[in-house]
Amino acid sequence: MNAPRIDFDRLLKLRLVVARVGEMDLAKWWNTSGQLGRFGAVALRRGFPRTHYFAQAKTVFAVAGQRCREIFDPPKCATLWYLTEQIEDAFDEKWEGWLDNYAAWQGFFKELEIIKDPNLRNALLSFDLISKEELEAIGQMRRTAENRALPLPKLFYGTDEDITLLAVGFTKSELGSLSVPYAQRAC
């Protein structure tokens, strides 16, 4: 089975915005503080002058993924930090191209650095990564009884829409209280 056609640049942007907002200096969901902000850029720029933005991203993605697995790790499900093996392999293959074209990403990372509002909804809207319809769809969903997770009502087929809903699902989390959005995989 072939991996679905996914806009991997968009996936990277969604992960970056969720990762940045989830840091301790904003929404307090995972234990990085300003790693995707100006502090992280200054700290890593010297050692990684050309690729520091992506080094920052890798670090926060790893921490966010681990924190989400600690909170809620459902079997045979997709989360923003682990979709499917095929999709993750394809995402990793794109990484080298992003590094080669780092200059095209500088503006996005600079905008990411200046996020000061822990409201993920506002950040996703400001980066034009979500629609009002997607926000409305998530608005109808409810977290699990213990507020640790947000089950999406439809199966995960690996589409851009599925991935976007996994990212938007984090808007149901509260300051200092992470709820992990997930969807049962179709196969």
Entry keywords:
about 190 residues; mainly alpha; three-stranded mixed beta sheet; 8 helices; about 50% helix
Would you give an account of this structure?
By secondary structure, the chain is mainly α. The protein is 50% helix and 5% strand. The chain contains eight helices and three strands; from the N terminus they run αααβααααβαβ. The protein has helices spanning 8-21, 38-45, 52-71, 85-100, 102-113, 120-126, 132-139, 160-168, and strands spanning 77-78, 149-151, 180-184. It has a three-stranded mixed sheet with strand order 1-3-2, covered by helices on one side. α8 links the parallel β2 (149-151) and β3. α2 packs across α3 and α4 (85-100) packs across α5. The protein is globular and about 45 Å long. It starts with 7 loop residues before the first helix and ends with a strand. The mean pLDDT is 90.
What is the molecular shape?
Answer: globular
Low-confidence sequence ranges: none
CA radius of gyration: 16 Å
**Residues in β-strands, percent:** 5-15%
What structural class is derived from the secondary structure elements? mainly alpha
The helix/strand order is HHHEHHHHEHE
- The N- to C-terminal Cα distance equals 10 Å
Helical stretch tally: 8
Could you give a short account of the major beta sheet? 3 strands, mixed
| Strand arrangement across the biggest beta sheet | 1-3-2
Tell how many strands the DSSP assignment holds: 3
Mean pLDDT: 90
- The percentage helix is 40-55%
